[in-house]
Amino acid sequence: MGCSTFQWKQPVHRSSELPLVFNRYQSLGTGLKLTDIGYHAMPCLESFETELAGGVLDIEFRKVNDGYIGKNLKIDHFIKSSLKRAKKYNPESREPASFVLIIRVKDRLTSVKEETIKFRADVEKMIYSDNREQFFRTCGTEYIQTARFDSEIFFFFSYYPESSQGASLLEKEINKKITENKNNVLQISIFRDLELDAETYFSLKVDTDVLFEPIEFAFEKIHGKQLDIFLNKLIHSVLTSDNGRIKQYVLSPWTKLNDLRSRMSLRGDRKITEYSDEQIFKSLQLLENSIKQYRLRFFQVKRLLREAGSGSKNTDLFNCATVFENENKYINWISFDHCRQAAILSKTVDLESIAECSPITEAISGLNLSKKCFGQYGNGDTEWVYLNDNIYLPLELVDRLVDDPLSIHRKETEYRFNDEDQIVSIPENVILGQGVDSTGQFYKENCIIESSKQIGNKTDKRNIAITNDYYPYAKKEWPWIKKAFLFWKNSPQWTLYRGAFEIEGFSPVLLPNFEITDEAKQLASTSIVSFYKKFGTHYVERIRHRRGFIYYFSPDSAGYNDIEIIPFGMTVPKQDIPIPAEYAEKIPFLGGDNQRSCSVELSGLLVLPMLIAAGAEPLLGAVLALACQDDVPALLDPKTVKEFFTNKEKLIEMFKDDDEAIPIRLSLKPWSEYLVNRGILMPEQLDLAELVE
């Protein structure tokens, strides 16, 4: 699966301090399982309520130019990209005056209300059966109880002033008004006296889940009063949204939940400081992960040794194989099981002090000192490439066109301003639960029983940001044929603008309590490698996506059909046309439904009885099939530019549905974790080292 012009890849850089979660909707309330590379997100809650508190409004305004140097990667990229495009699409090569307004609502807190927490049904069974080990394996030892985040508005505009003095006066006046209005959250009035009649570049990015109608400067003169009203709407949308950029998590052990402690014999850190269940299982989780990684490296070295053959002179490879063979008698699953049982009974988190654990921990410590054996022999370019170091870990894949502003290895792209990348070079549709591996290869075979899929946080608003911009694109004049007929007149010129409105959001989370087919279970228990080859090493847990529309228009020809709209990532909506149930059941095309969604008006419903009495149901079905095709709504094909602007708010409402949105980032979960947590396999059955003799 996948397009020849498209490629998924793993992010180049990611902070190891935060778990692999997308945003507040997946992070808050999420269980965390500790591994040696950081926390692993484990969604275990079916529902919970939250409370929102805090937030300080901060406004920053500055004039920017080509020599701009900043300190915030996200803001700097926005400003530099906007400056670059404002210059690029300046047909007369004039020097623009460019400004950026940054509005933040900082340090907002959102917390889980403990009394509203409801676990998934399968987790409830673990709790009632007092299965602590399975609970911690499935949900981790802690959960994200509180998140601190910032909501931001980036507003950039450029225009072409009559003089540099005029731009400086404007800057001073705006700064003065910001100082006067800084503490008035909902009554920002900083552009009130601004009035410009010039070609303008405009770009806006807002962290919000609230849809809003943007202002269009190009359509008329820029009136500061209108702009202030628009900015107040933006601030209101951010204040009413509980979405933003996560800055900090506050973790809490599951054992601190009063309801959970009352139903399970948990020993949390509030009872006995030197011992707690979460600390013991955290230690065991780290040890288990180390064993998995050791056994995976052992598999790789054994495979390379077999491929090298007996005549190989690779001394380093033979030495590494000897090291692994010597430690194999300690680092194995039988030894781990003995250690695990002893640790649970001993009530201590110091595994090295436990006789059954010390040999295995010492052996692993020794191997960790031997960087050569773990670092020199990687995965190789063989048929086993997908069985790499990532098979037991959660992963992310990103759209190769996405410019991650938080990455220190970021490369600037023309992503949003290149129609070919925006709406042509896009990936095929990705579905939750689809099999994939770390190389970006998708697997067509699906082993998940569709009816068993459950998604988390169904009521969440899943939009997280809105980007809107437009710029002068080209100069237009009469077509040649009109010039020929009106040769005695000079053709007027007007500006063609290109705009884009884009919503970014997330799919719901696929909860890991689905069922897989009996065939898949049998295949996994027989040969885990065969399972991976058929279904992938991971499955898609959540999707980050985008959708919106590109539009070209000429504001100087508002009464003419000089407007084109190109939607992307959207399901074209239909109108519901009621069909009486007694007739619908007799029409094959309708399939027995008493409703049929159409995008056209059907006015002849009164003739249904006559057509049915005449035995014309098949003919009627054919007519309805033709009439009910997915026609493009009038909102996407306006007759005039004025009609487009008049109905723009309705057009934006069409994009609430994200079923057909374009995926740009995927969250992947390892199949190994699912198979073990569901009791389909034991950890030792995932051992690849046993495959090579």
Q: What structural category arises from helix and sheet content?
A: alpha+beta
Low-confidence segments, ≥5 residues, pLDDT <50? 1-5, 19-25, 404-417, 574-578, 587-607, 625-632
Tell me, what's the shape?
elongated
Measure the end-to-end span: 34 Å
- Identify the quaternary structure here: single chain
Percent helix: 25-40%
Please state the average pLDDT score: 75
User: Mind describing the biggest β-sheet?
Assistant: 16 strands, antiparallel
Rg from alpha-carbon coordinates: 30 Å
The amount of beta strand, in percent, is 15-25%
- Beta strands, count: 24
How many helices? The count is 22
Brief overview:
By secondary structure, the protein is an alpha+beta fold. Helices cover 32% and strands 24% of the residues. Mean pLDDT is 75; it is low at 1-5, 19-25, 404-417, 574-578, 587-607 and 625-632.
